[in-house]
Amino acid sequence: MKLAKLVEEFVTGMGWEDELDTEEEYDTETGYRVISQIPLNIENQIFRLYIDAIEASEWLMITIYPPYRVNEGKYVDACMLFNYFNCFYSYGGRISVEDNGAIRYRQIIDVSETEPSKRLIHNMLVSGIEMFEDNAENIASIALTTKTYEAIREDIEKKAAIQKARTDEKFNRGDAVV
């Protein structure tokens, strides 16, 4: 119950206790598990946040779902884009698409033989929020429009090249902070 109590303290500290929906379950594989569901506002949309305290394995898990799914026929494009994010960007967790089209960001941390803190949960949450904030437009495009993975990658690479040119220009003028 140590992890469940920590999650409860975190939720209370964030002022979310009125929005909290908690479910307790016992699973033969994972043992006792407390799942806390909280609505989370990211980019003016309500996402679903789950904070799991899995006592037997001593895992803390954050899962964030956006309020939309990947349209049928776009799963491969979504998988390719999400794989790109997972390989080339540094977030604590991973983004994926489930068989039913649900988009999921998940981070799991093994806290056995440690003293986990509310700050740890906060950092896990911030990583997920930043992933969605940084990539919201591309995630929505791949999920909800006919735009392909290749077209989105091309857009990403063009924006990166523009940003690199700006940074190089500042550096060459001596304006860059090293």
Largest sheet: 6 strands, antiparallel
- Along the chain, the helix and strand elements come as HEEEEHEEHH
CATH architecture: 2-Layer Sandwich
Question: What average pLDDT do the residues reach?
Answer: 91
Kindly state the number of beta strands: 6
Could you say which structural class the secondary elements and strand pairing correspond to?
alpha+beta
CATH topology: Yope Regulator, Chain: A
Number of domains: 1
Measured between the Cα atoms of the first and last residue, the distance is 46 Å
The value of Rg in angstroms is 19 Å
Q: Rough shape?
A: globular
CATH class category label: Alpha Beta
Give an account of the 3D structure:
The chain is α+β, with helices and mostly antiparallel strands and 178 residues long. It has one domain: Yope Regulator, Chain: A. Helices cover 44% and strands 27% of the residues. The protein is built from 4 helices and 6 strands. It has helices at residues 2-14, 75-88, 118-144, 149-173, and strands spanning 21-27, 31-42, 45-54, 59-65, 94-97, 103-110. A 6-stranded antiparallel sheet has the order 1-2-3-4-6-5. A hairpin with a 5-residue loop joins strand 5 and strand 6 (103-110). Helix 2 runs parallel beside helix 4. It is globular. It starts with a helix and ends in a 5-residue tail after the last helix. The model has no long low-confidence stretch (mean pLDDT 91).
